[in-house]
Specification:
single chain; mainly alpha; four-stranded mixed sheet; 4 strands
Length: 255
């Protein structure tokens, strides 16, 4: 894309953070830090290799981690094939494998995206940095990731609930505690419209529903989750809520 289009993309990200606390936390943190200040990121930066390993394929990650932790156990043919994919020309040994991966990570995360970094830099420094105050990019990305504790803390539960409703609340909390990070993201997207923490409360409201029409209903405009209170047990609750989250009909990619 042209410089103007990349800068327009950066402006959209800044507006999203200013208005809704929405930030693309899945982007590589070293890349985002480099956009803000190119002087603090080099190949030796402590986050470079861990971030790089999160971006490669799972099969490659296993081989590379083995090479880092116990080079003698790694399949050298697999390792050399992977390194060749990332334009590594040196022969890897137990003594230089970390330095090789640092260079590969830097080449992939920083050098390969340098044009975008240059386009975004002025926008981020002028419009985003002033509103971050004492927070940094890494803090923003970390606090945006849904965790069990954060999602439960975001729930606004009714104070005058009946016994039946309190039982359903227990089922909801148990369900949330069973979710993986990816599923927590889906839960947040269903209830708030975003797959991350926005600092908003999710109001749980109990409504009357027949057994036929019973299902969780979310209103993302007000972050409201409507639940029936007539579930027999956890298995029934989990089955119906999981069916909703796994059904992509409700997903909207334009907000």
């Amino acid at each position: 894309m042209s410089k103007e289009k990349w800068q327009a993309t950066a402006k959209v990200l800044v507006i999203g953070y200013k208005q809704e606390s929405f930030f693309p936390f899945k982007l590589a943190v070293p890349f985002l830090q480099y956009v803000m200040d190119a002087t603090i990121i080099n190949s030796n930066h402590p986050s470079m290799i861990p971030t790089f390993l999160e971006l490669v394929a799972d099969s490659e990650k296993i081989v590379l981690e083995t090479a880092l932790n116990n080079f003698s156990d790694v399949d050298e043919e697999d390792l050399f094939d992977i390194l060749d994919n990332y334009k590594v020309k040196r022969n890897a040994t137990s003594d230089n494998i970390r330095a090789i991966l640092q260079d590969a990570a830097h080449r992939t995360l920083i050098q390969g995206t340098s044009y975008i970094s240059r386009c975004w830099h002025s926008v981020f420094v002028e419009h985003l940095k002033p509103v971050l105050h004492t927070m940094n990019i890494e803090d923003i990305c970390q606090t945006a990731i849904p965790t069990t504790r954060r999602v439960i803390a975001a729930l606004n539960l009714p104070q005058d609930a009946s016994e039946e409703q309190r039982n359903t609340t227990k089922l909801l909390l148990k369900f949330i505690k069973s979710l993986s990070v990816d599923k927590l993201m889906t839960f947040m997207r269903y209830t708030t419209g975003a797959n991350q923490m926005l600092g908003k409360k999710i109001t749980v409201r109990y409504v009357q529903q027949s057994d036929f029409e019973r299902r969780p209903v979310a209103h993302t405009c007000g972050c409201i989750l409507e639940l029936a209170s007539s579930f027999k047990d956890y298995i029934e609750f989990r089955s119906e809520f999981s069916a909703v989250l796994e059904n992509n009909i409700w997903v909207m990619d334009i907000v």
